[in-house]
Structure formats: C-alpha cells, structure tokens
Write a structure and sequence with these properties.
four-stranded mixed beta sheet, alpha/beta, about 45% helix, about 375 residues, globular
Amino acid sequence: MQRSLPGCQTADMTYLQSGTGSAHITMAATPSPAEIRSIVEHDPRWAAIVTRDRRADATFFYSVKTTGIYCRPWCGARRPNPANVQFHETAAGAERAGFRPCRRCHPDRSPEDREHVARVAHACRALESGDETPSLATLARHAGLSPHHFHRVFKAATGVTPREYAAAHRAKRVRQALGRDGASITDAIYAAGFNSSGRFYEAAADTIGMTPSAYRSGGLQAEIRFAVAQCSLGSILVARSEKGICAILLGDDPDALVRDLQDTFPKAALIGGDRAFEQMVARVIGFVEKPDAGLDLPLDIRGTAFQQRVWQALRRVPAGKTVSYAELARRIGAASSIRAVARACAANTIAIAIPCHRVVRTDGSLSGYRWGVDRKRRLLQREGGS
C-alpha cells in the first residue's frame, strides 16, 4: 500500500491537500528506518501531530496500525510510534483502509457535529446538577437551538431523549442515595432530588426492580424463583421475579448458570421452582425451540435508559430477520453509538426473549454472542434468518 505526502509551506505551516505546489513523497506500508527518519525530520504532517497543530485539522488524518484507530492531527492521544503511522487525505479513506474513528477527537464528525456535541455535553451537566429537571425549552435556549432541533441533536449524540437522560441520572442518584450508610429512606428521597415520596418510589420500582428497602439490603428481601432444564441448545436457566422473567441463561454447565444467577442477584432469596413454575419453564423451552411462536409472559427488564432502548428495538426485530449493529443504532436515533449498542446487546440477560442473536455485522457475518456463536448460528438457522 502506498501513501502520498502532501507538501506544505513551512513558513506559515499552511497544509496543501493537492494541486500546484504539492510536493509528493511516497511511503511504503512498512517504512524502512531511513524513511521513518525522513518522516520525523522532514514530514510536515508528523510535525503537526507532534505539536497538535489545530491549523492542520481536516487537511489530513493519521492512523495507527497497532491500535486500528485513526485521528485528527491535533488529537490529545499519546504520540504514536512513527513506524506505525499511516496518513490519509480523508476520514472516509481511513475507514476504507479498515481503521475506526478515535473516540477522543472524533475525526468522523464535522465541525458542526462537534459543536453540537459540546452543547449536548453542557446540557447533560445541567440535567445532572439541578434538583429540578430543566424543561426542553430551557435546555434548547441555553444551547442556542430550537427545541425541536435540540431534541434531535441531543438524541443523536446520546441515544436517548433529554427526559430519558434525566430519568436515568435520577435513577443513579436513587441507587447512590440508598447505598449511603446511616441514611434513611427519607434522606435518600431528598438526596436524589425528589420532592415527594410517591415519585421516589415510582422511580425506584422502575429502575431497580424492587422496593428501596430491598435494594438497600442488596436484594435480600427479593425472591427469585428459578429452574434449570435441558433444551436443544444445552442447559437453560429461567428465573422470575415478582415482576416477570428476569433471566434466561444458556450454557453447557447447569452449575455455572446458577452461579451466574447468584452473581447477578447476590443477596436475593433464590428459590427452586415448584410444579407451576416448571410449567412456565416448559413454555419458555417451547419458545426456544420455536421462536416465531412468541413468548406471552411478562418480562422484568432492568437496565439503563440506553440499554432499554436497544432491547426494545431488538424485540421489534421479527424472527427470521437480522439487523446490523449500525442499523440498530440508527433505529434508536444514535447512529454514532454502534459500540454502545454492542455493549447493550452483550449485557442482555434474557436470551431469546430479547433477541440479541438477531444482530450481525454489517457484512452479515456473525459476531460474538454471550452464550456462544454456535448457539447464535443455530438460532438463526432455526428462524430461517441465516
């Protein structure tokens, strides 16, 4: 692979992409020591990386072979070894070469996008710091945007709406307040920014899946019934809280599945299922064997606001169909949050019912699956989606 070096006017460090006045030097994909020395001593692009010159922004991008990431010249990341650096005229060119954008300098974003990100970050701080949640109109006014435009920009940057972001942060404050030693639940109500106990208990039930007193004791008062059985995919553990099914785990070792459940609910009272519960497990197994039949049972879905958006979008993907991580991110209005979407899929503890097995790479190939890629392949084959 060849790399072209645009020249520059060294007097004022004006970088030239192409055209008259560009002095081109070619560099092999694996440069020799002499070429590396020449880059370090004479290449204006390397000088821009060393000095983090913002005037070079968008005139070129550089990638690092050892990390697989490409950056802007002024990125604050650790200076790379010049032997591992490749230069690209455009961000698209870097991505075509197989590199992914840096999450620090965001080389895939336009200046307008970066300005929007800064405004959204300021709005997030406002949502986190105040006892009262600012209205959409107030947030938009401070961002210098119309409410509709701000709402769209905020959702694109964070993957959730301002209201959902505020609710997720308040839920975090609920958990923190309940975790403080010596603090009463009344203290926790006000520490979390609630003006009434009713709103506090409503938020607690929706976000932590149990009463505040049960959460404080680590789930000690929560009862979770479970049973382990066998299906065509191996061992399966089904667990249910008072709200609904809270776990469907797959694996080869039944004991490992029980330990996984114990790790998820370390202080809950785990109770073996009775005959009625075993009938429900049989229904779940029937759903595993024939996913297009659907599962008409309540689910106890616990997660952050962003995770729940991803999981709800997954539940709308029909059996026999697949969706890429990028497409799933677009469907929830967070096109730039592909990795966060992948992490949400990996955090899912309710297999099959929240069908993260229906998510594939952009080229259609299979990626990782919490319960094994082979199970993912078999599920898709069974559904006719692969």
